Fold each of these.
Amino acid sequence: MKLLYTVNSPYARKVRIVAIEKHIDVTLQEVVLTDPDCPVKNHNPLGKVPVLILNDGDSLYDSRVIVEYLDFHTPVARLISQDHSAKIKVRRWEALADGVCDAAVSVMLEQRKPEERQSQANIDKQMEKVTRGLEVLNLDIFKKKWCVNETFGLADIALGCALGYIDFRFKDMNWQDKYPNLAKHYSVLVKRPSFKQTMLVG
Ligand SMILES: N[C@@H](CCC(=O)N[C@@H](CS)C(=O)NCC(=O)O)C(=O)O
């Protein structure tokens, strides 16, 4: 199996952490999305990372499908509960964490445009999604050791990747002071080797 990824994609990081936690051997191929020869579009018509290329040449996307595939691939260290109601809770945490990343990525892309073409209204709208999302995640994690069923799992990984991305892109927003429950959870997650090995860089 080969994973096409970029080092600073929070979605690709989620997949890499899942593979590490489950001890699944995945060959990593870093790509540059702006490169005209970037192979991603040959495997995902949407042109987005992560993409998992299976040994038979078939490809899987997006990150939510890939993590489900990997979790089923081996029963070692289950990250998504088999119980339906717990699984729905896990997927909801993931949806909100990924949604915070979607909004944060939109802000970053808007801010990269030449200043005269930037839309402050769009930046504000996307930042509101980030802050509303973080507020709800902060309330939901209150007094919990792990997100779902008192067990480390995909919900914690998705949350950790979203917080890592916010920390990486918006250092000066002081999210750790504003959302202390999230800060506490993050401080536990970043001690795991899977998080340490996949720190965002740049
Ligand atoms: N929902 C997708 C989001 C993937 C995504 O947006 N990836 C970004 C990198 S962080 C990307 O490839 N962007 C390139 C583009 O949109 O053309 C997932 O969970 O995999």
Amino acid sequence: MPEIDYYILKRSLTGWEDECGDTGIIRVYDGQCFLGLIDVLGHGKEAYDIAILSENYIAENHRCNLVDIMNGLHAHLKGTRGAVATLCRLNLANGELNCVGIGNISTRLFSTKSLHIIPRDGIIGYMITAPKQEQLKLYSGDILVLSSDGLRENFDCENYPNLLKGSAKKIATDFMDFLNKGNDDASCIVLRYGI
Ligand SMILES: [Mn+2]
């Protein structure tokens, strides 16, 4: 089974950890890796509280079907300001990756070619289009990056020749340092499949 290396990094707009409305979760179990990245609308203390509420819900339910988790989170966040999120599950043995996304979390696979997952529209907790599962396949050496809209999505690889090199922690730190827009909380999850 290919080894994996992963890292979650988040940085609040205000600099205080308990004012970050972005959060991530990773769980490795039974030959699978569950990943989720959540961006609660806005930022500050209230966004942080909803981020923790979301994280706890997902942590409790991370072994369930991804569409069911998304629908459950939508119900759980009713009456809050809402969030966007992408949830993924990777089969570590064969590289099969399933993703369910609502709203503008960016999910990219850097491989021999670069691929995007297209999320569905909506705000979790307010109004969503029916969650849909998308499937990709990872091969050894591929790098999966989930990022919130606090980070620039478009960049020219030629300007950042070392961005996708090194450990997951190094890559996540570079994304945060080089691509931070500076106007919102920012977060990313980096997973290297096969080292
Ligand atoms: Mn945001």
